[in-house]
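Summary: Need help interpreting a holo structure output

Steps to reproduce:
1. Submit the protein chain below together with the SMILES for flavin mononucleotide.
2. Request a joint structure prediction with the ligand placed.
3. Inspect the structure token block that comes back.

Expected: a single structure record containing both the chain and the bound molecule.
Actual: see attached output.

Input attached:
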Amino acid sequence: MLNPFSKVDISFDDFRQSAKKRLPKLLFEYIDGAASDSSGEIDNRELIRKLRLKTKALINVEDRSLNHKVFRIPSKLPVGIAPMGMVQMAGVGADEALAKYAAKYEIPVGVSTAASMSLEKYAEYSRGYAWFQLYYMADHVELEKLLNRILKAGYKTLVFTIDVPEVGFRPNEIKNGLTMPFKLGPRQIFDFAIHPSWSLKTLLHGAPKFGNFSDTNSFNRNASRAGADWEFLKYLRDHWPNNLVIKGVLNTEDAKNMKGIGVDGIYVSSHGGRQLASAPHPIEMLPKIRKALGNDVQIFYDSGLRSGEDLVKAYALGANFAFMGRPWSMAYAANNRHGIDNYIKYLCKETSVAMAMIGRRNIEEICFDDIFWN
Ligand SMILES: Cc1cc2nc3c(=O)[nH]c(=O)nc-3n(C[C@H](O)[C@H](O)[C@H](O)COP(=O)(O)O)c2cc1C
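--- attached output ---
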């Protein structure tokens, strides 16, 4: 029976608070954290919050739909799952749940190179809705082996992340002694011991591991990727036959050069503020990059989207498809699959209300006329 006194999580902040209680501090702060003083993440969210949607009255908006399209493939929700390394940290079964969610709602799920489930399982559970996210690899022989493996698993979209020449400077990870794979000292053991619901389940299942590499030494999350350059991008374009999306773009000149090289999508993102606190705010760069590229390149957006109104704002500023990262992990950490179901239920409700208020019946209708800076 439903406990009338149990707490109901509705907003991102509700789920974040529940996740904070359930997860060991080390893991909560890994998911939640951002670069340096976190100002890049906080300020971008504040800018999104301050954006105003233009209300329009007396338009018949009875028939509204949240169905959308990405690379001409229909989706049942206007939001995808951004690639996240080691999502299993949010709870046992997180990767499988996200992949199955992608299949159910026909939305893209990003599979990080550092994912905690293999790319083959992601392809299977998502029924082909998975996009593989690649980090720079200097060794072309290894890279080509990986590209062949991704193609063989049936991937139609490769996302190359470019905003990681080095892993961002994240003070919390240093303070908490986060290493992957985990190294347990007295502080980490105490942290796990006082969060038994996460720790016992994980103990039974086994600690999160890199899913794409059987040998833990063959992937180093903290390795430098500073060798990535324009030649590498051209090489990748020549060696990847399907959709190529570049993630982490915050510069209009870069975006134009990438379009010139023939990429299929530009993914505007600050990695959720996890890489450079002083980077340009992605929500400000989105309309600028849209203006610079015109309408013949797909533009994707993530960073700081938390609510249905936020989603509408991203579409109004020129995104072809919007993604979220932390919200999926926080919702899963809060209450497993039910957490995600509830979060998405209210997110959809809010998106639909926001569309009604601005006189729009579907996502394609949302446009630059619908928004203004406060
Ligand atoms: C825990 C965590 C792990 C992430 N790992 C990756 C990754 O492996 N590759 C990648 O391209 N982006 C990664 N990201 C960034 C996300 O893809 C996305 O850009 C970001 O989360 C969007 O911001 P949001 O969390 O505010 O929605 C990660 C983000 C989080 C929170």
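--- end attachment ---

Reviewer comment: Residues 12-372 form a domain with the TIM Barrel fold (CATH 3.20.20.70). DSSP finds 14 helices and twelve strands in the chain.
Status: needs-info
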